[in-house]
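Appendix B, record 7
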Amino acid sequence: MTPEFVVEFAKQAITLTIYLSMPMLGLGLIAGLIVSVFQAVTQIQEMTLTFVPKIIAVFLGLLFAAPWMLERITSFTIHVFESIPTYIR
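Structure tokens (predicted):
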């Protein structure tokens, strides 16, 4: 294993992690912005009001994105396992 290989492998793993987390983080951000605008307009400053919509948005996003996420992580894992003999050399 060369240092270049380790860096490339880490880069692939980090890129996959970012791709898998982006939809959930984006939905949480959008839900948070909507709730913040709602709180600013109505002057309701309830702290727990911000968490429930974010949780629901992330859960629904996870529900719809789960097949895509599972396919991506499964293909990455299969690729890693199939490449083990080349990693050893």
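Remarks on this record: The longest helix spans residues 3-42. The chain has a mean pLDDT of 91.
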